[in-house]
Design a protein that fits this description.
The protein is α/β, with parallel strands linked by helices and 397 residues long. It contains eight helices and eleven strands. It has one domain (40-371). It has helices at residues 4-28, 30-38, 97-112, 139-162, 176-187, 192-195, 243-252, 350-371, and strands at residues 61-63, 75-79, 120-124, 169-174, 198-204, 231-235, 237-239, 254-256, 262-264, 314-317, 320-323. Strand 10 and strand 11 (320-323) form a beta hairpin. Helix 4 (139-162) crosses helix 5. 41% of the residues are buried.
């Protein structure tokens, strides 16, 4: 016969075991739980998107285009990573305070900051696809990504139309921004007059299939070395032990095809340019060559972070930039639900990218001087009309 105290003790133990089992189950399924809470649970076709930005209004930009520039002034167009995780919307509401705070406090200092010295930096606000949209391959998620790209395209067109400079252009896209920079390269830099101005395009933490350079990105190439220009720097950095993340990066990333459709990267060889060496090479770069990462979150635009150098070795292998475990706590992902899916709140190659961008802008300027520029395109068409021909009469001497 159990005493009341024994029954109570058994009940408490049973409850504790139940709680532990529930906690273990939630931990094992934490990724699915994260996705579940971020799902808008409404078809994109019936979804009412947030109001569109007006790119003629400076308030639609983090850093608006400067309409009074020197003719040869370099410019940097930055497409920021995801700042809205999901839940209510498929795409970011520009009035969302949390997303806006992540944009200005985390995304801009870390991903636009390294390029401040390369030229005048331009950063549009845009209705980026939610982080959830990149965790599923549903048609709704594809539509959200395409919707976001239309904002980026409109912003770039406005920037280009009102620019008074004819100098080098640097494109920067981190995480989701990398997808949209790929779109700009296909849809705008296919024009040789615009492509000749491309110093470099950075596609960071986003997979780029090599076969695109034989198709949608024809006319461009990966940067062969640190002095190359009119080229692409692309990489996704992972520890060798991050097998699950590497597999997701290789197989579940989706990129535009030549018809503007999103296609998986599964089974396709990926591009990798080592940001420490500055070239598409499989050479090993020891940690002593790493110029430094920075956790720039919270810094004002005018403030330069102190880079933390020699944090990792780097090597491109099978389309992945392999790195060592980082020793600095400020350059490691925080521990939180869904953290592995979120953009990094730091830039591991902050100083390396800053130097790289400056070198490529200078290289393109030197090419302008030695190779010249393409003749400007015709301003318009001339209509030819039929005109009567009057024969000159014979004149007898």
């Amino acid at each position: 016969m159990f005493t009341p105290s024994t029954i109570l003790r058994i009940s408490l133990y049973s409850l504790l075991v139940f709680i532990i089992l529930i906690a273990a189950s939630m931990y094992a399924g934490r990724d699915n739980l994260f996705r579940f809470f971020l799902d808008p649970k409404i078809p994109f076709q019936t979804y009412q998107p947030p109001p569109a930005p007006d790119y003629t209004d400076p308030s639609s930009w983090v850093q608006a285009p400067n309409t009074d520039q020197a003719k040869d002034q370099p410019q940097v167009f930055v497409v920021t990573p995801s700042t809205y995780w999901g839940g209510e919307h498929w795409n970011t509401d520009l009035a969302d305070e949390k997303a806006g705070d992540r944009l200005t406090r985390i995304a801009v200092p870390n991903w636009a900051g390294p390029f401040r010295k390369a030229g005048t930096v331009v950063i549009p606000k845009y209705r980026s696809a939610s982080l959830y949209s990149f965790l599923t391959t549903r048609n709704d998620a594809k539509a959200a990504r395409a919707f976001a790209y239309r904002d980026v395209l409109a912003a770039f067109d406005q920037f280009f139309a009102q620019s008074t400079s004819n100098g080098p252009i640097v494109l920067v896209g981190a995480e989701q921004g990398g997808l949209h920079v790929l779109g700009l390269l296909q849809d705008r830099f296919n024009d040789p007059h615009i492509r000749e101005r491309l110093a470099v395009a950075y596609i960071i933490d986003f997979a780029v299939p090599l076969d695109l350079f034989d198709g949608a990105l024809q006319g461009l190439s990966l940067c062969a070395d640190a002095k190359a220009s009119r080229c692409v720097v692309a990489y996704g950095a992972f520890n060798e032990t991050d097998r699950k993340e590497i597999t997701r990066f290789r197989e579940r990333t989706m990129v535009w095809d030549q018809k503007g459709r999103l296609q998986k990267t599964q089974g396709r060889a990926l591009a990798c340019v080592n940001p420490v060496l500055g070239g598409a090479t499989s050479d090993f770069a020891p940690s002593r060559l790493h110029l430094g990462g920075a956790a720039a979150s919270g810094l004002d635009w005018a403030m330069e972070p102190a880079p933390i150098p020699q944090q990792t070795s780097t090597q491109c292998a099978d389309g992945i930039l392999l790195i060592e475990p980082i020793t600095s706590n400020s350059l490691r992902k925080p521990r939180s639900l869904g953290a592995r899916f979120k953009p990094n709140p730091f830039n591991l190659f902050y100083a390396d990218l800053a130097k790289d961008a400056g070198q490529r802008v200078l290289a393109l300027q030197q090419r302008f001087e030695t190779e010249g520029r393409l003749a400007p395109p015709f301003g318009g068409t001339i209509e030819l009309r039929e005109s009567p021909i009057n024969k000159t009469p014979d004149i007898n001497p």
